[in-house]
Amino acid sequence: MQLKFLGANRQVTGSCTLLETGGVRLLIDCGLFQERAFLERNWASFPVPQEQIDFLLLTHVHLDHSGLLPKLVREGFSRPILTTSASKDLIPIMLLDSAHIQEEDAAFKKKRHKREGRKGPYPEIPLYTVRDAEKVFPLLEEVPYGKTLALDHRLQVTFHDAGHILGSAMVDIKIKDKGKTRRLIFSGDIGQWNKPLIRDPSVFDYADYVIMESTYGNRIHEDPEDVADWLCQIINETAKAGGNVVIPTFAVERAQELLFHLSLLVREERIPQIFIFLDSPMALDINEVFKHHPECMDEETKRLFEKGQEPFRFPGLRLVRNREESKAINSFKGTCIILAGSGMCTGGRIKHHLVQNISRPESTILFVGYQAEGTLGRQIVEGNPQVRIHGQYHPVRARVEQIHGFSAHADRNGLLRWLSHLQQAPQRIFLIHGEKESASDLASYLEKEKDWSARVPEYLEEYKLL
Predict the structure, then answer these.
(1) What counts of helices (H) and strands (E) characterise the chain?
(2) For the chain, what is the radius of gyration of the CA atoms?
(3) For the whole model, what pTM was predicted?
C-alpha cells in the first residue's frame, strides 16, 4: 500500500490523496486550490495520469474537495466517482456554478487586461467550462451511508456521515492482504457536534491509518451556544449605526445554518424587522436539495419541517436569484442583511456587495467561516487597510467581525474528541487540510501527549504503508 499526497498539504485547499494497493488506485477527492500562492497548481497537468486512476471517492461537494473534477474529466478521466446520495444531488449545482464563475471571471479579466494594456499571471481563459462540468455528472455513482461496497475481492469501501455539510462523508477503506486486514479512515472534513440541521460526526473504535483534516488543529471555537447571541449583537449594533451586515457565505451548510439562526432571531423578535437577502442562486437550489434528504438531518430539524417551521422561509427573508435583483439590493435604503457567495470572497456576487459596503464605517463585514491564506476574505480579516476588488483598490473602513462558532469544521477539541474514540493508537496519523502551523501543532500534541505517530506530509510526498 502506498499514499501520495496531491493537495491540501500544509495548506487548506486542493484536497486530493492517491491510495494505491494491489494494483488498484483510488483517488480521494479532487479539490480546487484557492490560496493565491497555489493557484498555478490548478492550471498544471494532473500529478497522476488520469488513466491510472481506477476509482474516485468524493467526501463532499465543497470546491476545495470537488472543484477540479471537470478539469480531470476533460483530461480523459472516465471511471466511477463514488459519493453519497446527497452529494450526488449537490455536485451538479456546485460544479455548474463554479464553471459559470470561471467563464465569467475569465471574460472579465480579459476585458480588464485589454483596457489596462497588460496580461495577468494566469491564462485569460476559464479553468474549465460548463460543458466540462456537465461531463462529470454521468460518472457519479451513489453510495448510501453505512453500505459496504466491494471494489474488488480485497478492497471494501464504506461511507459514514462526517457531520460537516449535507452529504459529507468519512471514507472507511478495508484492505485484505496476505491474510491480514488493514483499515484506513479518511476523515474528510470533520463537523462539529451539536450543530443545527445535520447529524453529528461518525466515530471509529480502531484504524491502522488515519488521514485526517487539521484546519483548526491549534484553535478553539467560541461556544456554539453563543453563536446566536453574537449574531444578534452584531446585527443590532449595525442597524443602530445605519449600515448593512454583509456576510460572505458558503452556499452549502453555512447559508442554511445562518438561515436557521436568523429565522429564530426573527421569530423571537430579537432583531429589528429588516430585510434579509439571500443573494445566491446556488444556495436557493441547495435549500431545495436539503429538503429531500432527511437521512442527513438531525432530529430537531426534522421536527421543524414536520411542524411547518422550516428555517429556509420566514418573515423578511428575500430570495434573490437573477442579476437584476442582486444589483437592486445596493440601491436599498436602510439597514439590511446580505448573504452572498463566495464564502472566502474569491468570486461571485459577494464582491459586488463588498465594493458597496467595505468603505462604509457604519456597515459590518461578518465572516462566518474559515478564510484560507491568500484569499480576499483572509486579507480583510487580517486587517489590510485596503483591498483589491475587481481591479480597483478600496479602503477598508467597515467594521470587520468573525464568528468561528459557525464553522462547519471541528476545532482542536473536536478533533481530539473524534480521535479519542480510537481504542488504540493507529500505526500512523497523516494530518492534511490545514495550514502548516495548525497541522504541525496538532501533530506535536499527538506525539508528545499521546505518544501517537503523526506526520504532516509535504505536497507530492509519498509514504509506503506496512
Answers:
(1) 14, 22
(2) 22
(3) 0.87
